[in-house]
Every structure is written in C-alpha cells, then in structure tokens.
Amino acid sequence: MNDVIDIAIIGAGASGLMLGALVGEGRALIFEGNSKVGAKLLISGGGKCNLTNAEVEAMHFRGNPYFVDEVLRLFDQYDLLKWLKSEGLEPVLRKKRQYFCPKSASQIVTILKKKSQKQSLMLNDPITEIVKRGEYFYLKTARKSYRANRVVIASGGLSFPLLGASDFGHRAAESFGHTIIRTAPALVGLTLQKEQFFFKELSGIATEVEIKVGEHLCAGSLLFAHKGISGPAVLDASLYWEKGKIEIDFLPQWQPEEHQDSSKLLSSVLPLPKRVSKAFLAALEIADRPINQLKSDEKKRLLSLKRYLLAPAGTFGYSKAEVTRGGVDTDEIDSKTMMSKKCDGLYFVGEVVDVTGRLGGYNFQWAFSSAYVCAKALEGGG
Ligand SMILES: Cc1cc2nc3c(=O)[nH]c(=O)nc-3n(C[C@H](O)[C@H](O)[C@H](O)COP(=O)(O)OP(=O)(O)OC[C@H]3O[C@@H](n4cnc5c(N)ncnc54)[C@H](O)[C@@H]3O)c2cc1C
Predict the structure, then answer these.
(1) Atom 40 in ligand 1: residue holding the nearest Cα
(2) pTM to 2 decimals?
(3) Which terminus of the chain is more exposed, N or C, with fewer CB under 10 A?
(4) Which CATH class is domain 4-183+324-379?
(5) Cα-atom radius of gyration of the chain, to the nearest Å?
C-alpha cells in the first residue's frame, strides 16, 4: 500500500474535476473508472454544455430547499460565471436564460482538466470498495489498494451507464449507514399506455405545451417520439412524475371564445401542427368542420385538449435519462461542508446527493456549487 492520500476523489465528472481544480496542489488523487474524464460534460447540452442558468433558486431543484439554498448561497451562478471568466470562458445566453459554452463542451472540459492537473489522476480503474478503519479510509480497485485521510464521493448517478454511471456511490453511502432516497430516471421521456398509441404516428413532430404534474408547471416543447413523448417540457415534467396522471395543455395560447363564431375549418385554426390536429380530432371523434358549426359535445371534447389527461406507462429508463433523481439523503449531510453526518471525513458532491435540478443547466450548477462548498471545507481542514 502506498503513502496516505490526503483527499481521495471518486469520479472525474463535473463535480470531481471542479473539486480537483479548487483544492490545493497535490492534495488529491482523483479516481475515474472511464478511460477519460468529463464524459457527460462532453456530450451535454447537445455538445455545447448548458453550464448554468440566469435564474438559479432552490425552487429549480427537487430536494430539500433549505439544504439547496445553503449550498447555492456559497457558490451561485454569478460566482460560477465569474470563475469561468477568470479562466477565459464567457458562456453565452441561449433560449433566454440558459448559459452554454460558446463553441463546444470541450471548452469547459479543457478548463477543468487544466485546473485539476495539479492533482494525481487514476483512469480506467474504478473504486470497488471503501471502508474506514481507525482514522483511515481504505479504498480498493481491481488492481490496487489505497489509504486516505478523507474521501469525496463524486461518482454521479445511474443515468447513462454507457458513460461510466454506476451505483457505486449509493452502495458506498449505504455501507456507511446512509439512507438512499429512492432513485428513478429523471429528465427523461415518458412511455404511453394504449389510449395514446396513436401518438406514435406523429413521431418526430414537436408542439408547444404546458404540462401540470401535481403543483408543478412545465412549459415548452413536447416531441412525439417513437417510444412515447419527449422534448424539454416532458423531460422537466419527468422530474416530478412518480405515478398517476399528468395534465397536458396542448393549446396553451388558444382562447376558444375568440374563435367560436369563425367559419374557418377547425384544423386550419387550431394552433397545432396539421398532422397533430388531424390525429387529435380523429381520436376525439370531432368532425373537422367550420368552428361555428361544431356541436356542443364536440366543443366540449375539443376543450379536453387544454386539459388532456395522460397516465404515462413509465419512462425511457436510465439509458436515456439525463439525470437520476433521489440519492444520498441530505438530512445526513452537512450543507456547510458536504460532509457526512454519519462518518467523519466522508463527503458527497454532485448528482449522488438527493438534489436534482430541472432542465436548464441546474444540474451542472449543483455539481459545481456542491464541489465548491466541499473544497472550502477541505481547504479549511473541515
Ligand atoms: C446526455 C446528457 C446531457 C446532459 N446535459 C446537461 C446540461 O446541458 N446541463 C446540465 O446542467 N446537466 C446536464 N446533464 C446532467 C449532468 O451531466 C450531470 O448532472 C452531472 O454530470 C453530474 O455531475 P457529477 O460529477 O455528479 O457526476 P458525473 O459527471 O456523472 O461524474 C461521475 C464520474 O464518476 C465516475 N465513476 C462512477 N463510479 C465510479 C467508481 N466506482 N470509481 C471511479 N469512478 C467512478 C463516472 O465514470 C463519472 O465520470 C446531462 C446529462 C446527460 C446524460
């Protein structure tokens, strides 16, 4: 067994790399199971990486809002943008509030790699076990054993197993007595039941909608996909959907009273892509006639498009989900340090924690904010 590592960081994704960048030179050894670092960063945001958002509040996350707020208060989107600027990266605003890398996601990976180069890095050798005996942690890989003063679990969630995702973080947390809040794929498409099988014919078409899931409203585009429904509004809704029905307004801009006297054909007036109008009119048994000639029961059925109830059969699963919701219970982590309340010297950052952001750059902000808080604690000897 080698000398004692001061800080063992497990995972070289967004949070692990940020941590490696922020702690003092040579203090950490970063372990990464993949053959390269930052695999998810590189493919994120359609290859441009949605780094953060102009508005970042606890309400944009699923998780304990007080915990999230305390962490964000120490490193928010302004701090992140300032840090990136000091490293020569000025993200650009797209889709109103989302900050992306100006050219490509490799820009952020290059910065994180450069800044974390001061630490040692072990690639291609995932950690398989951590135990604590006395004051030291003992870590094992398939090839070697290590001893460390402190361990930070930055191994992410279960989404995209092809990119190295593993349940290691959750298993390790449990072995130290932590509770894992039930995990599920999130920011993911939803599959359909028989009643909506006609959606399949619309595969590839997108339309603007508003989706209500409990008290949450998710607005944006819905994409009809071969396997079900996807697109930004659906991904957002999947963060909150557990079971039961969601309510979709397929006509968010449509005020029926404005059109009731119109002599135009219904399908030509409905603010929906033509094929979508036709499919819904057929499914709802509404004749495509001039609006002022619609029968009253047809008008009623038409209005159901503003409150279309749909009970998803499930999700597209972890292989397609951008994130994993659930994870290490935040009641058992100190929000000022990200240290476990169950085991001194053990820390959790990033997606492995039970904090999951909505679509829009919130998950990277969380990865970076939690890594910052942890780095400050480690630097201060916390
Ligand atoms: C397709 C896609 C697009 C996305 N786009 C965005 C976006 O634009 N904006 C946004 O905010 N979020 C986005 N996300 C979510 C975001 O990528 C994650 O929330 C974020 O990467 C989490 O950071 P992390 O450091 O916790 O985990 P990760 O970045 O997943 O890093 C964890 C690392 O740990 C390694 N690891 C796992 N187990 C072990 C082990 N036992 N030993 C050693 N290493 C291990 C993994 O290989 C991985 O490299 C996207 C996700 C996906 C899948």
Answers:
(1) 126
(2) 0.96
(3) N
(4) alpha beta
(5) 24
